[in-house]
Amino acid sequence: MDALEVRPHDLLSNEAQTLIAELNAELSAMYPEEGATHFRLDPSEVRPGNGRFVIAARDGRHLGCGAVRRIDARTAELKRMYVRPEARNRGVARAVLRALEAEARGLGVGRLVLETGVRQAAALALYRREGYAVIPPYGEYVGSPLSVCMAKDL
Q: What is the largest CA-CA distance in the chain?
């Protein structure tokens, strides 16, 4: 088995769009409430200098993805973290997360924030293990009872 590779990828590529569609379907099923999902990520937000979109692959199979986008001079946000069900509990999410943290450091930011959902126990556990702490809701997540916002200083 080849090593897991996490590399920058074009957000508009077929591979990226397939993974994002799978993520959107999973989140829509998990959170059927009106207005419960926050799917937006623009290509300009992940272009070099603003952020990055990455895909994790092993043996040519795309297993997961994630993005980081700059919010301001000091802060970036993690977006669109996803691992295909058959690849879960195999270190893929951790590898994607650490690659995105490295990308954030490359952007010169000192803090990462993220939003995940109250029903995503595995994601919450991963973020806590990796040093993220719960913070008050920010941006579009203010007032969302289904959102959990977290942050980590890099």
A: 45
